[in-house]
């Protein structure tokens, strides 16, 4: 005997009992909210002047906005942070584009990118200085697959010292994509 079952606009034909429709794979989504800063700091913890609109002289990597750090020639620290959930059985690929503009000649201004995953010590994955490339370059970090649900915190921290030149760091298109 054939049974016709209609579930949420999906047609499933079975013999004997009902079968559930196949769900999309849970480890294939981009989970970072507002990766290109087109909605300002939505989805991010950020300092007050972090997100700027690109200009013809300093355009965004894509879209019109990006996050910018330092560049004031004052002693200060900037922070940009976001937390995402990694479902059980998934890992996380974090990718971002970054560039710098500098008049410095020493390593006193810097930008660190970190990835902290619950159950693991936070790690600085990249440390950039005045000699970073001036054109957009892509960088990435990975959190491995685990059997339990976790949270991941993506962090960018810059430190700027007064005197010795000015370095501006820019970051754009920060994606956090789940993987199996």
Q: What does the model show?
A:
This protein is mainly beta. Helices cover 0% and strands 51% of the residues. The protein contains no helices and 12 strands. It has strands at 2-7, 10-15, 45-46, 51-53, 65-70, 76-86, 91-102, 110-117, 123-128, 137-143, 150-160, 167-179. A 5-stranded antiparallel sheet has the order 3-6-11-8-9, with no helix packed on it. The relative contact order is 0.27.
Would you kindly provide a brief summary of this structure?
The chain is mainly β and 180 residues long. The protein has no helices and twelve strands.
Keywords:
180 residues; mainly beta; 5-stranded antiparallel β-sheet; 12 strands; globular; disordered N terminus
* β-sheet strand percentage: over 45%
First CA to last CA: what distance?
38 Å
Give the proportion of residues in helices. Answer: under 10%
Spatial shape: globular
Please tally the helical runs, counting DSSP H or I stretches of 4 or more residues: 0
Unreliable stretches, pLDDT < 50, 5 or more residues?
1-17
Order of secondary-structure elements: EEEEEEEEEEEE
Strand order of the largest sheet: 3-6-11-8-9
């Amino acid at each position: 005997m054939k049974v016709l079952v209609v579930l949420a606009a999906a047609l499933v034909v079975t013999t004997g009992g009902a079968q559930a429709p196949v769900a999309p794979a849970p480890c294939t989504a981009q989970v970072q909210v507002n990766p290109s800063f087109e909605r300002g700091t939505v989805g991010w913890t950020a300092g007050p002047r972090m997100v700027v609109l690109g200009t013809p002289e300093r355009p965004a990597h894509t879209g019109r906005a990006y996050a910018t750090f330092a560049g004031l020639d004052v002693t200060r620290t900037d922070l940009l942070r976001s937390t995402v959930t990694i479902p059980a059985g998934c890992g996380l690929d974090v990718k971002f584009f970054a560039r710098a503009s500098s008049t410095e000649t020493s390593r006193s201004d810097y930008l660190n990118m970190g990835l902290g995953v619950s159950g693991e010590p936070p790690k600085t994955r990249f440390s950039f200085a005045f000699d970073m490339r001036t054109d957009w370059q892509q960088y990435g970090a990975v959190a491995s697959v685990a059997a339990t649900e976790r949270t991941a915190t993506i962090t960018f921290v810059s430190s700027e010292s007064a005197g010795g030149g000015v370095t501006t760091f820019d970051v754009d298109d920060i994606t956090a994509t789940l993987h199996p």
